[in-house]
Specification:
The protein is mostly beta strands and about 180 residues long. It contains two helices and eleven strands. The strands form three sheets. A four-stranded antiparallel beta sheet has the order 1-2-3-4, with no helix packed on it. It has a four-stranded antiparallel beta sheet with strand order 5-6-7-8, with no helix packed on it. Strand 2 and strand 3 (about 35-40) form a beta hairpin. The longest helix has 11 residues, at about 150-160.
Amino acid sequence: CASTKYDNYFWNDVDSPFAYTDGNWYYISTDLSYKYNIMKTPELTAGEPLFPLNLIWGNWGTYFSGLFIKDGRLVYNTGDSVIAYDPKTGISELLWCETGKDSYLIYGSAMHDGDIYYDVKNSPYSDSDIRKLPIPTKGDLNLDGTINSEDLLLLRKYLAGGYNILINRTAADYDGNGN
């Protein structure tokens, strides 16, 4: 196609699906320095950065994340985690962390029939290993499979003011009362 009509449109730098909730569109975009942000806009036009994302996939030149809405929250993945962000409260929740489980990274996430799935592999061109997001163990806040003093320290930091700490709220709600 020789047309240049859409060469400068904002979606040239979009590296995710578009997600819509509560009157706003969300997407992941990059600038020329490969800094990635989740963007927010009320119309399908260039949005404003909501918050930055860390790039840990190396030099592949793109951000390998899904982006979708589940229970009113934006769900996306980083290279080692699946995170839910509530646009109404501004609170993020760690849904799953793949760190230390093997040497692979998460190369995408999606929702199917209400369940969250993510793809783990050692490069974007390797065969897929699509996994269903597990239900976390109560008390295992860092999702490493063990309940120990590291979980208690993580909870104390979170309760003391966050310190940019993400925890899994389902795992933190040990007694199941929703608090």
